[in-house]
Amino acid sequence: MRLTTDQNEFQDLLKRFFSERITSEYLRERMSKSLRDDAALEQAVRELGVWDTFSGEQPACGVVELALLAEECGRALVPDALVERVIAESLLESLLKPQERAAWARLLPAGTKSLIAFNGCCELSVAASSAPAAEQGASSVTLSGTVQWAVGCSEATAFVGFSNVAGSRRVVLATLGPATSNQQAKTALLPSLDLTTPLTKVTFTNTPCTVLTPETTEAIEVALEIVKASEASGICQRVISMTTEYVKTREQFGVPVGSFQAIQQKLAQAYAESEALSSLCRFAAWSFSASPEQRRLTSRAAILKAADVGPSVCETAIQCHGGIGFTWEYDLHLYLRRAKVIQAGFGITEERAEQVIGAVS
Q1: What are phi and psi of 162, to 5 degrees?
Q2: Pairing status of strand 158-165 against strand 114-116
Q3: At 199, which helix (H) or strand (E)?
C-alpha cells in the first residue's frame, strides 16, 4: 500500500515530534520516578492535533493514520498507552452505530480518560440488572468479573474491554466511578514487564455497562489488532536501525563486527521479518475501510505475525550487540519488554489459529 502525501507528512510530523520528546533520558526519568502519566506530554500531543483528527462521527483520519501513529509510538517507545487511549477516547465514536452513540456519550463523555483491555485478558460476564428501572437509567445489564490487566490512563474513569455475552465475545463500555452498596469497579496498579506502560487490574461487581453489537465489536477488535501489530513493527524497525549502526562501529579483532557473516545473516533475517510485518500491517490498515471483507483475516494475520516477530527481532538485536545489549543503561531491553507485552496480549492460541483458518476458508 502506498501512503498518500498527507499520510507521509503525518508520519514525518509524528517521527520528529517523538524523537525530540521521547529520549532515553526521558524514559528513565519516567521509570525512576514511577510517574503514572505525564500531563505535559499528553497536552503536547493534544496540541499537535492527534486526538482531534480521530474524533467525531466522520474523523479526518482513520485506521491507516492510526496505524502510522502506532508505528511511531513503537519506534520511540512512547509511554502511557497513547494508541489505546486514542481508540477509546476518539476513534471509538466513529465505529459505533447510531443507537450505541448515546450510550457512548453517557458513559464516555468528552474529556474522559480510559482504560482498554485486550481480548483474552478479561474474565467478565454480563447479566440482566436487578436494580429497579429508575436506578438502571439507560443500562439494563451489569458487568461482573476480573480484568487481569488493562492499559491506559492511571486516572481513568471509563473502561473499554471484552466480555462473554451469551457465548460470544462482545465489547462492553463501563464507568469506573464511585462504588455504591452493590455496584462497584475496583482498580489496582500492577507491576509490569513493560516499565514504560503501567498495567491495571480491574474487578467489576454488578457494574452497569453497555454491550456493543457484534459488528461494532469486530470493528474495535480489528482496529486494536492492527494498531498493536503496527506498534510492534515500529519496534522492529527501531532496534534494527540501532543494531545496524552499532555493528558498523563496534570492532572485534580489528574489524567491525558487522563484517562477520554470522552477524550479517542474523541482521538480514531480522530485517526481512521486519519488512514482512510492516507490509502486512499496511495492508491490514488499508483493508479496514477499503476491503472490509478481508479485514478480519488481515488484522489477525498481522497481530499473530507481530506477536512472533517482535520479540525475536529484539532478541536478535541484543545478541548482535553482545554484552552491552543486556545492560540496564542500553535501551534494547525496553523494546523487548514492550514487544513481550504485545505478545502476551495477542500471542498465538488455538482459538486465534482457528479464527485465521476460518477467515481463509
Answers
A1: -115, 140
A2: parallel
A3: strand 199-211
Task: Say how far apart CA 8 and CA 21 lie, in whole Å.
Answer: 20
Say how many C-beta atoms besides its own lie within 10 A of residue 352's C-beta. Answer: 18
Right CATH for 109-212 from 2.60.120, 2.60.40, 2.40.110, 1.10.4160: 2.40.110
CATH class of 217-360: mainly alpha
Measured distance CA(226)–CA(69) in Å, rounded: 11
> Residue 21 CA to chain centroid, in angstroms?
20
Q: Which of 88, 93, 210 is nearest to 150 (CA)?
A: 88
φ/ψ (deg, to 5) at 165: -130, 110
Instruction: Select from 208, 264, 239 the least CA-distant residue to 335.
Output: 239
CA-nearest of 350, 321, 351 to 336 is 321
Smallest CA-to-CA distance from 21 within 47, 58, 1, 60 is with: 47
Residue 279, all three cell numbers? 507490509
Q: What is the pLDDT of residues 204-223, one digit of tens each?
A: 998 888 899 999 999 999 99
Q: What is the pLDDT of residues 283-299, one digit of tens each?
A: 999 999 999 999 999 99
With beta carbons less than 8 A apart as the criterion, state whether 116 and 99 touch.
Answer: no
Q: Residue 142 belongs to what H/E stretch?
A: strand 141-152
- The pTM of the full predicted model, rounded to 2 decimals, is 0.91
Q: What percent of the residues of the chain are helix, what percent strand, and what percent coil, each to the nearest 5?
A: 60, 15, 25
* Residue 147, φ and ψ in degrees, nearest 5: -100, 115
Sequence-separated (6 or more) residues with CB below 8 Å from residue 304? 346, 347, 348, 352, 356
